[in-house]
Amino acid sequence: MGFMRLPASALFLICLICLTPLIASVRAGVATGPMDIDWLMLSFEMAGGLALFLYGMDKMSTGMKRTAGNKMRSILTSLTQNRVVAMVVGAFVTMVIQSSSATTVMLVSFVQAGLLTLSQSLGVILGADIGTTVTAQMVAFKLTDYALLMLAIGFLVKTMGRTGKVRSVGDIILGFGILFFGMKLMSDAMNPLRSYPPFINLMQNMAHPLAGIAVGAVFTALVQSSSATTGVLIVLAQEGLITLVAGIPVIFGANIGTCVTAVLAGIGASREAKRVALAHVLFKVAGIGLFIFWIPTFSQLVIGLGSYFGTGTARNLANAHTLLNVTMGLVFLPFTPVFAKLIYRIYPDRETDTSKAIKTMYIENAVLGTPSLAIDLARAEMARMARLLGRMLDAVIIPFLSDQRHIATPDMSREERQMLLREIPRYDTYHPKLTLMQGLDLREEKIDFLQKELIRYLTRIAQGNITAVQAKEVFGMMSIVKDMEAIGDTIHRNMLPLITKKKQLNYDFSLEGKEELLIYHGKVRKQIRLLQAGLNEPNTDLALKIMKGERKYLDLESVYRARHLERIILKNENAVETHDIHLELMDLMKQIVLYSAHIAHTYITSAAPDEEAHLSPEKQEEEAPV
Question: In a designed cystine with 95, which of 131, 287, 315, 328 is the match (CB 3.0 to 4.6 A)?
Answer without folding.
Answer: 131
